[in-house]
Specification:
Length: 330
């Protein structure tokens, strides 16, 4: 009798273990893509600004292009530039049991990764996911997180600067030192300048309200400005762009949207492409592909973008052959 009870107990424990061990996207797997139950996707931004807004817009467009418009429910929230709001929003997503969390930018991605090991996370625009501690291997992401990096090739941006404005002898870097992606990009910019014998000065800010004073002070000391894909700067990019135009100096940026906001030029991120890449990964998750089988992607296309209006205002001539090669915004 004891032996029989032991067998029953073993079987019971085995069943509990098997039913309790869920993959990190089982909830999504159980949501029939052809069924009536909508898949809840929680999207979070740290702040509203054109770059991040464009990513969100093209994630949604990408989902529509993937045929998922009627199959998903988008829950969007932004932290309004307040870091404490990020954790609150992520906790709400976890409490509401959304099926997928889509954090846009590094800080929301880090918060989501800390908050849940069960809900699939597909990040967007995390420049350096290894440095941010999100994954240990971009090719085989462990746990429940993958996504699309917006890492920029800083050397290409500075090569463009040397082509368009060869007279530049000094750069000013302006960024938020609290953003991991910005710190990494600026370190690469320093390496480039040191290798080429170019002087540089760096100025850091903690919020967008500091940008006006910081930019005015920096512009007086340098020939050109570089700002990476920094969310704090991006949220007030027109302020920096206006001060630089008044002084007649170029602002090189990490993203095309910052050039559209008045910066001078970039070899940078096209966020419309990035948004669509994120949407394609979301579809894979919905279809039941394991996160570990979805490598972290980098951007598939970079754009050389020049703001022609800014070029005219700061007195930089763009040659005819360059006009044919570059994407021009005005």
């Amino acid at each position: 009798m004891k032996k029989f009870l032991g067998i029953i107990l073993t079987i019971t424990i085995t069943i509990i273990l098997l039913t309790g061990c869920k993959t990190n996207n089982e909830a999504v797997k159980n949501s029939d893509i052809g069924g009536n139950e909508k898949i809840k996707i929680g999207i979070i931004q740290p702040v509203e600004h054109p770059s991040l807004n464009q990513i969100r817009e093209y994630i949604i467009i990408g989902l529509e292009e993937q045929g998922l418009k009627e199959k998903v429910e988008i829950i969007y929230k932004d932290a309004q530039g307040d870091a404490s709001n990020i954790n609150t929003i992520v906790s709400q997503f976890v409490g509401e049991e959304v099926d997928i969390i889509v954090p846009i930018a590094t800080a929301p991605a880090q918060s989501a990764a800390a908050a849940t090991k069960d809900i699939p996370i597909v990040f967007a625009a995390v420049s350096y996911p290894l440095d941010a501690g999100l994954v240990a291997d971009v090719d085989n992401p462990e746990g429940n997180i993958t996504g699309v990096s917006d890492a920029i090739d800083v050397s290409q941006i500075f090569d463009l600067a040397m082509e368009l404005t060869p007279e530049v002898k000094s750069f000013g870097f302006i960024y938020n030192a609290g953003e991991v992606n910005s710190v990494s990009a600026v370190e690469k910019a320093k390496e480039y300048c040191e290798d080429k014998g170019i002087n540089y000065i760096e100025t850091t800010i903690t919020n967008s309200s500091e940008l006006l004073q910081a930019s005015q002070s920096l512009i007086e000391k340098v020939d050109a400005i570089f700002t990476p894909t920094d969310n704090t700067v991006a949220s007030a990019m027109p302020v920096l762009a206006e001060q630089a135009r008044k002084a007649g100096i170029p602002v090189y940026t990490g993203a095309d949207s910052l050039v559209e906001d008045g910066g001078f030029a970039t070899v940078g991120v096209d966020y419309t492409v990035l948004g669509r890449q994120v949407a394609a990964i979301i579809r894979k998750v919905i279809e039941g592909v394991e996160i570990s089988d979805i490598p972290v992607e980098t951007l598939k296309e970079y754009a050389t973008v020049v703001n022609l209006t800014t070029a005219k205002e700061i007195g930089v001539e763009i040659l005819e052959e360059q006009l044919r090669e570059f994407r021009i915004v005005e």
